[in-house]
Recover the amino acids of this structure.
């Protein structure tokens, strides 16, 4: 008996028993222990374990905390495909302007076609829109002695300054010098790519510009034969709005007008093709005619020509758009063509 007790106290026996117990604990509990650790938001516990184990070898290994990232948001498109969506960012866009009828909807960079209300004066209108009285006078070819009438339409610039119609041989630096403005401000406000990014018939807003008295605000009027322009839409058509801003009228059709063809009112060269909001005209194009007159076609659903193309009178150049919510519709209440003429009278505005 004494011999057996003595052998049980043998250090090797103690060590063997401890090893068996330790092995059992590790085998049964390791899986749950590491599952718990790996589901933590960071690896601080694992770092502590690593440090403790490595100190036994006189070493130290640091395992950095897990970097927190926002998971990719997967959205289903038409129930059959996926798209990745990152967290939303706030993006603000600069726009040249828009044509709207309700001043309550106007923004800091929008051109407004305002209808004079009862009790309005030039002073009250300038205060309402936060621009100078001179800005209203210049934009509407008025003077300080002019009397505005109830129901009269006034063009309101988004900022104090001048609304300018680009004419032949104009350069941005000369325009800026003439109107005592900064060329860089004109480029920025009108979203031009460079000083050379202007064409005959373009409408520029000149922030803080001052109109010199000897310089006319409108293009010289070129006399036109009654047959020079043809109606730019197919028959039967209707005119939904007579002469309004930018010397334009609106053509449409009874029933559905969107998608109907638009024709070149006269032959010439495509000066501009632009997409987007664009002064409320939406997608639009302009044509320079041989006599120097420029025609403008706005609210286009599709454009069938390119900048620089030569087109013939009656050639199909685009399709009517303008349906609210349609890309490129601009500020529009329905499908129609906004047809403007610069440098001559609009023959369809009589």
């Amino acid at each position: 008996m004494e011999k057996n007790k003595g052998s049980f106290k043998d250090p090797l026996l103690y060590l063997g028993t401890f090893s068996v117990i330790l092995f059992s604990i590790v085998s049964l509990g390791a899986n749950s222990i590491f599952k718990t650790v790996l589901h933590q938001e960071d690896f601080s516990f694992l770092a502590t374990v690593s440090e403790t184990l490595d100190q036994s070898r006189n070493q130290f290994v640091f395992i950095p905390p897990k970097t927190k990232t926002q998971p990719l948001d997967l959205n289903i498109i038409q129930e059959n495909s996926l798209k990745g969506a990152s967290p939303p960012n706030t993006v603000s866009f600069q726009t040249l302007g828009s044509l709207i009828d309700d001043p309550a909807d106007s923004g800091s960079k929008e051109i407004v076609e305002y209808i004079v209300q009862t009790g309005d004066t030039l002073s009250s209108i300038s205060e309402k829109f936060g621009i100078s009285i001179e800005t209203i006078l210049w934009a509407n070819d008025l003077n300080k002695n002019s009397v505005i009438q109830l129901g009269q339409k006034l063009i309101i610039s988004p900022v104090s300054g001048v609304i300018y119609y680009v004419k032949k041989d104009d350069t941005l630096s000369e325009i800026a010098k003439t109107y005592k403005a900064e060329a860089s401000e004109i480029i920025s406000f009108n979203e031009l790519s460079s000083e050379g990014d202007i064409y005959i018939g373009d409408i520029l807003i000149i922030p803080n510009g001052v109109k010199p008295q000897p310089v006319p605000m409108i293009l010289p009027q070129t006399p036109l034969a009654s047959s020079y322009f043809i109606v730019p839409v197919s028959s039967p058509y209707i005119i939904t709005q007579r002469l309004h801003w930018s010397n334009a009228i609106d053509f449409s059709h009874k029933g559905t007008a969107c998608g109907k063809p638009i024709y070149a009112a006269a032959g010439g060269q495509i000066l501009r093709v632009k997409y987007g909001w664009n002064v409320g005209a939406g997608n639009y194009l302009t044509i320079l005619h041989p006599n120097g007159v420029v025609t403008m076609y706005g609210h286009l659903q599709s454009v069938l020509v390119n900048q620089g193309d030569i087109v013939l009178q009656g050639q199909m150049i685009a399709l009517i758009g303008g349906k609210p919510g349609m890309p490129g519709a601009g500020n529009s209440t329905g499908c129609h063509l906004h047809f403007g003429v610069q440098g001559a009278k609009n023959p369809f505005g009589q």
Observations:
- Residues 2-66 form one domain.
- The chain is about 20% helix and 20% strand.
- Residues 122 and 133 are 6 Å apart (CA to CA).
- The mean pLDDT is 75.
